[in-house]
Amino acid sequence: MTHYYAFNGDADGLCALQQLRLARPQDVVLVTGVKRDIQLVRRVPASAGDELTVLDISLDQNREPLLGLLSTGVTVRYFDHHHAGDMPDSPLFTSYIDEAPDVCTSILVDRHLQGKYRKWAIAAAYGDSLPGVGDAMAAADGLGAEETGMLRLLGTYLNYNAYGETVSDLHFDPAALAAALQPFENPLDFVRASPTYAMLREGYEDDMAKARQLEPALQAPGATLMVLPDACWAKRAIGVFANELSRAMPDSALAILSPNAEGGFVVSLRVPSGGPVPADEFCRRYKTGGGRKLAAGINHLARAEQDSFAAAFQDCYRR
Fold it and tell me: I need a labelling partner for 141 at 20 to 30 A (CA). Which of 21, 108, 166, 262 fits?
């Protein structure tokens, strides 16, 4: 029997994976990719009797290959907080899915493990743009300001590393990053001791310095749109830059467009709580769109759609 893990390569997927591997050390096969590579289940070569754990990718986006694996006798447990749709009707399927806006996949794993490796879930909350949740969890765990700050930065750096069009755009392949995390039960020890962490920090600081020099392509009350250059650093920076701008403009919707290899754009969208249209609903207007209520994206927006997208975005969110 082989146990597979299909996990999003961002902070939430990595920290969820880390908690489960600490709780159950075993040889596993990892299937992952960049943050936007979410149709991972189709890449899992499991067969009857094997086990699959899926972390932080939408069930709705993986439904057909998931049903195929279940029909062949693969046991599947599914941890996620994105739009899921109908649940598979199979005794081999176990759902740990919660689409509430104040949870991430690592928090769902933390619940499952009854808080055994909570610091990893705290780091994930910060990385997944849930700073208020991270602060509350850190305070409840008795962490001081210094340790809380270390987990906040760790989550930020792990999340930042996952943004790119291909794995070659990243500083670290998420599978290699998972291997670097694996020896550390306490994420604070990883921060203090690992050269991998130092490389993540340096890369992040360099990329974000470039991003902060950019000016908006469109700015109106309640709606800001940025267009990034076609550069590896910009592909890496897009997610964290979106989160940073969202915190600076909490009452404004934010769309960031980054050029992709198909000649169009990858879109990252953030909207304020209580806005007119949830982010995932807006992005699902487009064929490759999806995500969560406050943070969503489009994997490919044709360049010919750029102007119409900008107009729709402004019409929807401008106050």
Answer: 21
